[in-house]
Amino acid sequence: KGRNAHVPYRDSKLTRILQPSLGGNARTAIICTISPAQSHVEQTRNTLLFASCAKEVATNAHVNVVISDKALMEKEIKEPTRQRDLAQSQLEDLLKVVGDDKASRHVAVIDKPTKSVPQNAWEDDNSLTEISGMTQSYGALELKLQDVQKTIDCLVNPYPEE
């Protein structure tokens, strides 16, 4: 049997009223009352069948988090700035690595014969190409940040005074 496949609802008004709680995002406790009287055997049997089916239903209840519009807008405002700062730190880290590589390569060039100079020059070109790509991506993030800032300004003040 599938765990969340089907909730076995009884044909009763109470079950229909509780339907959202039984199958939704809620923790539910069901109390079934039965009677030992011979005259209520059929009702007791049906109640026990319902209880055995209902106990098989597993719900995954969790607390609903409601974010206010103001908090959501602040989060959206901070996101492009965070992305820009991340790109800036990555660029700085890359420049440090490239700078360290260049220094070590120049020392290696002095120690090695001149045959290795073209190889090091090619690696420098690759590093410069990589730095150029990072700079372009940083510029694209700056433009995206400006677009987001304009959108936020329009949302905050949809009717600017002229």
TrEMBL record:
Domain of life: Eukaryota
InterPro entries: Kinesin-like_fam, Kinesin_motor_dom, P-loop_NTPase
Listed GO biological process terms: microtubule-based movement
Domain Kinesin motor: 1-57
Keywords: Motor protein
Pfam annotation, one family: Kinesin
GO molecular function: ATP binding; microtubule binding; microtubule motor activity
Entry's family note: Belongs to the TRAFAC class myosin-kinesin ATPase superfamily. Kinesin family.
Name assigned to this protein: Kinesin motor domain-containing protein
Organism for this UniProt entry: Coptis chinensis
Organism phylogeny: Eukaryota, Viridiplantae, Streptophyta, Embryophyta, Tracheophyta
